[in-house]
């Protein structure tokens, strides 16, 4: 496969990864027509294991149930609020995604253990949707400034299997509007991406898979300034 064909293939994969993360990761109520909700029904859950596995599960469930009945007189503990995962985005819309790609050099791959170390040194945390995120110091609940997904489908990382991961690259992406202004977010993204590029000896590319040079960086910063001005104007008009 020629370098150009590989570039096109990775571009297509990257697009589908982003669509999958954002479409299927958003609340179902935001994706579905309200007229369809009246027809919701519960589907039976079918375990696909063999009979021996099912017997073992039933025996374990029976033992656990017996233990609960033994403690029946103890007052039930109130359930606490569900723990929020790092990088979980607020239920809000976005109108733009800025993407950069970090690709292994020709003929190579990025190894999972190296990626874990590089992500940590770049200030990223593993969290929501099983991908990496950059959060605001002291304000993690406001959502990620940007995130990093795997270019290999389905776009997520299995943290317990990172020692076996080998991937052609990762995708940096930030959604706008976000917790910071667009320009601040870009100025947070760029140093982290460049740092990981150095640590992994990988190529940092723009959204069209061209080398991210100084001219493109200046162009991106101008685009972010324009976006911020537009957001400010819309806020005043509203």
CATH architecture of the domain at 3-26 and 84-179 and 188-211: 2-Layer Sandwich
CATH topology of the domain at 3-26 and 84-179 and 188-211: Cell Division Protein Zipa, Chain: A
Mind telling me the CATH superfamily name of the domain at 3-26 and 84-179 and 188-211? ZipA, C-terminal FtsZ-binding domain
What is the alpha-carbon Rg in Å? Answer: 22 Å
**Number of strand segments:** 8
- The run of helices and strands is HHHEEHEEEEEHEH
Q: Largest sheet, if any?
A: 6 strands, antiparallel
Gross morphology is globular
Give the termini distance in whole angstroms.
52 Å
Q: What value does the average pLDDT take?
A: 78
Beta-strand fraction estimate = 5-15%
Roughly how much helix do the residues carry, as a percent range?
Answer: 40-55%
What is the CATH class designation of the domain at 3-26 and 84-179 and 188-211?
A: Alpha Beta
List low-pLDDT spans.
1-11, 23-52, 61-77
Number of H- or I-type helical stretches: 6
Topology of this structure?
Layout: H1 3-25, H2 28-31, H3 51-70, E1 96-103, E2 110-111, H4 112-121, E3 125-126, E4 132-134, E5 146-150, E6 166-167, E7 169-176, H5 182-200, E8 203-205, H6 214-237
Antiparallel strand pairs: 1-7, 1-8, 2-6, 3-4, 4-5, 5-7
Walk me through what this model shows:
It is a single chain. This protein is of the alpha+beta class. The protein has a domain at 3-26 and 84-179 and 188-211: 2-Layer Sandwich (Cell Division Protein Zipa, Chain: A), CATH 3.30.1400. It is 42% helix and 14% strand. The chain has helices spanning 3-25, 28-31, 51-70, 112-121, 182-200, 214-237, and strands spanning 96-103, 110-111, 125-126, 132-134, 146-150, 166-167, 169-176, 203-205. It has a six-stranded antiparallel sheet, with helices on both faces. α4 crosses α5 and α5 runs antiparallel to α6 (214-237). The longest helix has 24 residues, at 214-237. The protein is globular, with a radius of gyration of 22 Å.
